[in-house]
Amino acid sequence: MLQPGLRQVAAGYVLYGTSTMLVFTTGDGVHGFTMDPGVGEFLLSHPNIRIPERGRIYSVNEGYYSYWDEPTKAILEYFKSSDNNNRKPYSGRYIGSLVADFHRNLIYGGIFMYPADNRDPKKPQGKLRLTCEANPMAFLAEQAGGMAVDGRNRILELEVEHLHQRTPLFIGSREDVLKVREVYREFDAKG
């Protein structure tokens, strides 16, 4: 159980909404299957899903802004300004569900952020669990051409120390996640 995410062999989720969709990977691309109630089976509806290289949407609970570190605040300001790679502000969309927010960004491009915050001294690394939330989603993101980091490090390379270990998560379109890592490294270089 306490293995890095690189050792995963499969990951997926089921999304319920106007339709029911199963999205998964076994390490050879990401595929989506939609439930057809007429036949009672999941049918391949989204073969080989590829997340756009850069998105237009950011997903984060901005209500916790004052609890974030300075790099995270700078990242949010980057996505909200017109001084970014898109030359216009990203749209803020936050459902409050990792799966739903990730799925939208997987299809349309963008970044989901659940940074660490200083609200709860018992959870200095944030809320999301590495083994059963961050790693599976990171595996899906990378198989679709995206990325996932904790700010500085690739999620799938993090050492698992205990089953309920928590981690910050920045996941989605490759160029957007690379920007997160760049900002963290700039702050680290300043000391």
Q: Count every beta strand, where a strand is a DSSP E run of 2 or more residues.
A: 9
What is the ordering of alpha helices and beta strands?
Answer: EEEEEHEHEHEEH
Distance between the termini: 35 Å
Q: What order do the strands of the largest sheet run in, or round the barrel if closed?
A: 6-5-7-9-8
Bulk shape: globular
- Label the structural class: alpha+beta
Strand content: 15-25%
The low-confidence parts are none
Specify the CATH class of the largest domain.
Alpha Beta
What number is the mean pLDDT? 94
What number of domains?
A: 2
Rg from C-alpha positions? 17 Å
Secondary-structure blueprint of this entry?
Layout: E1 11-16, E2 20-25, E3 30-36, E4 41-46, E5 57-59, H1 70-80, E6 91-92, H2 98-108, E7 111-114, H3 130-143, E8 147-149, E9 169-172, H4 174-190
Parallel strand pairs: 5-6, 5-7
Antiparallel strand pairs: 1-2, 2-3, 3-4, 7-9, 8-9
Helix pairs in contact: 1-4
Task: Describe this structure as you would to a colleague.
The chain is α+β, with helices and mostly antiparallel strands and 191 residues long. The chain has two domains: 5-46, no CATH class; 57-190, D-Maltodextrin-Binding Protein, domain 2 (3-Layer(aba) Sandwich), CATH 3.40.190. Helices cover 28% and strands 21% of the residues. The strands form two sheets. A five-stranded mixed sheet has the order 6-5-7-9-8, with helices on both faces. The chain has a four-stranded antiparallel sheet with strand order 1-2-3-4, covered by helices on one side. Helix 1 (70-80) packs across helix 4 (174-190). The termini are far apart.
